[in-house]
Write a structure and sequence with these properties.
The protein is an alpha/beta fold. It has helices at 16-26, 46-49, 64-68, 79-91, 107-114, 136-139, 154-163, 196-199, 213-225, 259-270, 319-334, and strands at 6-11, 31-37, 72-75, 96-98, 132-133, 148-150, 176-182, 204-205, 233-239, 245-252, 276-278, 296-303, 308-315. The chain is 29% helix and 19% strand. Helix 6 links the parallel strand 5 (132-133) and strand 6 (148-150). Helix 1 (16-26) crosses helix 11. Residues 11-18, 38-41, 62, 76-79, 81, 99-100, 153-154, 184-185, 187-188, 317-318, 321-322 line the site of NADP nicotinamide-adenine-dinucleotide phosphate.
């Protein structure tokens, strides 16, 4: 692609996903954040919500006309706002990468898991103009020229990357996912349940058994692998750290499947992927090593005594779980180098 500048809009720029997009865009070789929009924080300096950024820009009001004239728009907004904004922007002809859950499920699943009738069913996963489900490693071929990308949720990203290559080797109905996220996964919030005094020194499960990502994980694994792994048991936990997400998935192994089959399925699938690493036997991924990066690391063990496989995926929830993957998807959609702007590696210590 011959463009020297790609003009980008970020809506929801005052939120955690939005500020992470702005951070990554500052280092992107061709993308420029041209419209930086928020809702209640419009008018404030970007630095008031993102003190790490070097900019004097102000947050703007959301203006669909200005957004419609750009090369790509990221919606880092709650799903209700994305449902309102995305159809209009798509009609204006600007490609949209939506970080919310608004377009990840079929209209019927959306009604069941998010509540209410889907207002734009043609853009839902089973619609005539369905959004592309943007788990990049599994949907790369569908992304170029897409009108709308449903960027995956953070838990589904780590979980589906870890489990999808194993779908044919495990027993349907046996998958249990125990996942943990840092507090930024819940977005910028003043809620007491997310305050430092409440969260620090504590660990708690939430959302089970009807967390919205449950159905997304099931349908995304079926979409990626072509195999229905049945209903999963999914329990997320809130961990007292800012960033990072770890998904530990366990399933019964099918008769005749051994440790070498399991490892080969993962290693072969991701051998040529730039952002997904399968760790050597005996190693499990750590979240901090991925902080600020677009990486995903996967560890695998076979437990012959229990007849189960345990596979653990780790990501930065704001990186590969949100803004990083959104930029990866936009790069592919626009015909740019897939890794452009995503060269940061994680941190230690
Ligand atoms: N946090 C994560 O790790 C993560 C990971 C994957 C996906 N996601 C998804 O990404 C989206 C953003 O998440 P977040 O964590 O960044 O949330 P957040 O920190 O709460 O930020 C939400 C943003 O949306 C804006 N907004 C709210 N209602 C709006 C409306 N009606 N019109 C325009 N803008 C509106 C807010 O603006 P004001 O503050 O100015 O009102 C704010 O900038 C959500 O759908 C979330 O589910 C988040």
């Amino acid at each position: 692609m011959g463009r020297t500048t790609v003009r980008v809009g970020v809506v929801g720029a005052s939120g955690y996903g939005g500020t992470e997009l702005l951070r990554l865009l500052e280092a992107h070789p061709v993308m420029t954040a041209t419209v930086i929009a928020a809702r209640s924080r419009a008018g404030e300096p970007v630095r008031s919500v993102a003190p790490n950024l070097r900019t004097d820009a102000l947050l703007e009001d959301v203006d669909p006309v200005a957004l419609g004239a750009l090369d790509v728009v990221f919606l880092a907004t709650p799903h209700e706002a994305s449902l309102e904004l995305a159809p209009d922007l798509v009609d204006r002809g600007v490609p949209v990468i939506d970080l919310s859950g608004a377009f990840r499920l079929s209209a019927a699943d959306h009604a069941e898991w998010y509540g209410g009738v889907h207002p734009a069913p043609e853009l839902a996963a089973d619609g005539g103009r369905a959004a592309v489900y943007g788990l990049t490693e599994w949907s790369r071929a569908e992304l170029p020229g897409a009108h709308l990308v449903a960027n995956p949720g953070c838990y589904p990203t780590a979980t589906v990357l870890a489990l999808a290559p194993l779908a044919g080797l495990i027993e349907a109905g046996s998958v249990v996912v125990d996942a943990k996220s840092g507090t930024s996964g819940a977005g910028r919030s003043t809620a007491d349940a997310l305050s430092a005094s409440t969260v620090l020194g504590d660990l708690v499960a939430y959302g089970a058994p009807r967390h919205r990502h449950t159905r997304e994980i099931e349908t995304a694994i079926a979409g990626a692998s072509g195999i229905d792994i049945g209903a999963i048991g999914f329990t997320p936990h809130l961990v007292p750290m800012s960033r990072g997400l770890l998904s530990t998935c366990s399933a019964r192994v099918r008769d005749g499947v051994g440790p070498d089959d399991l490892r080969a399925a993962l290693v072969d699938r991701y051998a040529h992927e730039g952002f997904v690493d399968v760790l050597p036997a005996g190693e499990f991924p750590r979240t901090k090593a991925l902080a600020g990066s677009n990486g995903c690391r996967i560890g695998l063990l076979h437990d012959p005594r229990a007849g189960r496989v345990v596979v653990t995926g780790a990501i930065d929830n704001l990186g590969k779980g949100a803004a990083g993957q959104a930029i990866q998807n936009a790069n592919v959609l626009l015909g740019l180098d897939e890794g452009a702007g995503l060269t940061a590696i994680g941190m230690h210590p």
